[in-house]
Amino acid sequence: MNPDTGWIPDGDFRHCASLNACGSLRFAVESAGAYHFRPLFTLILPIMTIDLNLARENMIEQQIRPWEVLDPRVLDSFRAVPRDRFVPEAYRDVAYSDVAIPLGDGEHMMKPVVEGRVLQALDLAGSENVLEIGTGSGYLTACLATLAGRVTSVEINERLFNAARERLANRADSVTVLLADALAGFKPEQRFDAIVVTGAVAAIPKLFLDWLAPAGRLFAVRGQSPAMEAVLVTRVDGGSHRTDSLFETELGYLRGAEPKPVFAL
C-alpha cells in the first residue's frame, strides 16, 4: 500500500480482509507500478434480524417507563406477554415500536405508552373482575389477564373476534371473549371492578357506568379531536361518580360512540 495515498498497487490485496467480510472486492489496475484504485464490487449486506426480546425490553425502558409508567407489576405484564404474537404478520418487525399498528377495517392497536398508562391507572391488585370493551388484537386483554382475576372482553368485529379468541386460547381459564355490541344488546350478568374502553367515545355512555361495581373504576378516552382526554371514572358512595383527568391522547372511536354530526345552517 502506498503510505501517501492509501491506494493499493497491482496484486496487493493484503489489506482487504475487512472489506471482504462485507462483500467481494475486485481491483483493476491500468498500468503496472502505478497506484490506480478502481473498486468494482457488489456490497453484500448481512440479513438483519430483529431481536424481539431486546425490542420488548427497549419498549418498556425507552417508551413506557419514560411516560411515567413505573408500577413494577404493569411493567412485568409487558415482559410476560409477547406483543409480536398479537400483531398482523406484516407488522411483526415493528410490534414494539411507538406506533398505533393497523388491524384492518379501520381499527388500530393502542400505542404501547397508552396501554401502559391504562394498566397503571386501573391499579389492579390481582383479584378483580374486568370488562374490556373492544378486544382488538387481544394484546391488552392478555396484559389485563396477568394483572386481574378474570377478564371478559367484548368485540363487535367478527374477524377481530375470531383472531383474538385464537390468540387467547391458552388463557381460557381467565379470559372470555364475546362477539357482541357493547352499546346494543350486551347485558352482563354481573358488575365489574374495572372497565376498559379501548375506543374513544364522544361521551361516556351511562350503561357503561351502570356496570361498575362499588368502588369500581372505568378507563376511557372521551371528547373530540384534537381535544381528547383519557379519564378514570370511579364509582363512589351512593352510586355517584368521580372523574379524574389523566392525559391527552388521540384514539379511534368505538363503533357507535362517535360524535353526532352537527349541521350548520
From TrEMBL:
It comes from the Bacteria. InterPro entries: PCMT (IPR000682), rRNA_Ade_methylase_Trfase_N (IPR020598), SAM-dependent_MTases_sf (IPR029063). Residues 114-242 form the Ribosomal RNA adenine methylase transferase N-terminal domain. One of its GO terms (molecular function) is rRNA (adenine-N6,N6-)-dimethyltransferase activity. The keyword Cell inner membrane does not apply. It holds the Pfam family PCMT. The keyword Transcription regulation does not apply. Keywords: Methyltransferase, S-adenosyl-L-methionine, Transferase. One of its GO terms (cellular component) is cytoplasm. PANTHER family: PROTEIN-L-ISOASPARTATE O-METHYLTRANSFERASE (PTHR11579:SF18). Belongs to the methyltransferase superfamily. L-isoaspartyl/D-aspartyl protein methyltransferase family. This is Protein-L-isoaspartate O-methyltransferase.
